[in-house]
Amino acid sequence: MSKSETINILVTNDDGIHADGLLALKTALDSIGKVWVVAPDRPRSACGHSITLHKPLRLTRVKLADCSYGYACSGTPSDSVSLGVPGVVQGKVDLLVSGINRGPNLGWDLTYSGTVSAAMEGVILGIPSIAVSVASYGDDISFDYAAEYTAILAKKILKDGLPTDTLLNINVPALPRDQIKGIEVTTQGRRRYSGTVDKRVDPNGRAYYWLGGDTVIDGLEEGTDVKAVAGGKVSVTPIHLDLTDYSYLEKLKQLVASAD
Ligand code: MN
Questions:
Q1: In the sheet that 59-63 helps form, which strands lie side by side, from edge to edge?
Q2: Pairing verdict, β 4-12 and 59-63
Q3: CATH number for the domain including 15?
Q4: Within a domain: 14
Q5: 170 CA distance to ligand 1 centroid (A)?
Q6: Which residue from 20, 94, 109, 206 has the highest number of Cβ atoms inside 10 Å of its Cβ?
Q7: Is residue 215 part of a domain?
C-alpha cells in the first residue's frame, strides 16, 4: 500500500507524548498514512480505562522530536482517544495504534493497562485498534523491531479490518531481532505479581504503602501470550471487550432461579 493522505491513523500511548516508543511507532506508521498523535501530557501507565469527568481537559499542540506536531492531552489515554476522535483527526480514523509501551501488557496486566485501554476506547468508537508493547522496562530497549512489525500488521488490518468489539494486543520480547523466535497468535494468559504491598512508616509514625512488586508469577499455559513472550516470540492476541463467561451462563441461570 502506498502512502495515502486518505488513511488516517491515530497514535496514542500511556507513557506520555514524549516517550521514545511513541516516536518509534509514529515513524514506522508515517509510511502508511497520515499519523495523528494525541497522547497524555505525562506518564499515565497503569491508569486502566479511566476517564476524566471531574475537571476540564486540555489539548496542547506540541512539537515532537521528529519536528512534527502532536497534541498533548491533560487526561488519560482513553481521554486522548475521545478528544482525538473527531476533535483532532480531520476525517475518519481508519486505525488506532496505542504504544509502543515500555513494559509488557500480558495476561491480567490488560485490565490495568492504559495502553490497552486506549485501544479499547478505539474499539468502542468503532475503530480497528491495536495495542503494542515491548516486554522490558529497561532504559536501553530498542523499539525498532516492534515498530516495524506493527506497521506490517497495521497494513494488513487496514485492508482486512478486525471483528466487531475486538482489538489486537501485541507484545514483543526485548531481544535483538535475530534472537526473536517468531510470531505466535495467542490467548490471554495469567500473570500476577507477588509481594505487591510494601508497608513503610513515615517520620510521624504513620504507615504508608507502595504498591508494586516486581515478582511476576506467570501461568505458563501453552498458547498464551505470557508463554510466547517468555519463549522469545512475539505474541499477537485478539482481545474481545465482552468479558462475559458464556460457559457459566446456564449454570448461573439455574443457581439464580433456585435462589428465588
Ligand atoms: Mn506504560
A1: 59-63, 69-73, 33-40, 4-12, 95-102, 129-134, 166-172, 234-240, 183-185
A2: unpaired
A3: 3.40.1210.10
A4: yes
A5: 14
A6: 109
A7: no
Residue 152 inside a domain? The answer is yes
Model pTM?
Answer: 0.95
| 3-class state of residue 220 by DSSP | coil
Can you tell me whether residue 206 is helix, strand or coil?
A: coil
How far is ligand 1, taken at its centre, from the CA of residue 80, in Å? 14
CA of 247 relative to ligand 1 center, distance in Å: 33
Report how far ligand 1's centroid is from the alpha carbon of 173 (Å): 15
- What is the per-residue pLDDT for 5? 56
> How far away, in angstroms, is 133 Cα from ligand 1 center?
8
Cell of 241: 471487550
Tens of pLDDT along 47-103? 999 999 999 999 999 999 999 999 999 999 999 999 999 899 999 999 999 999 999
Compute, in angstroms, the gap from residue 206 CA to the centroid of ligand 1. Answer: 31
- The whole domain housing 232 covers 3-190+220-258
Per the structure, how many domains does the chain have? 1
Q: How far is the CA of 175 from the centre of ligand 1 (A)?
A: 19
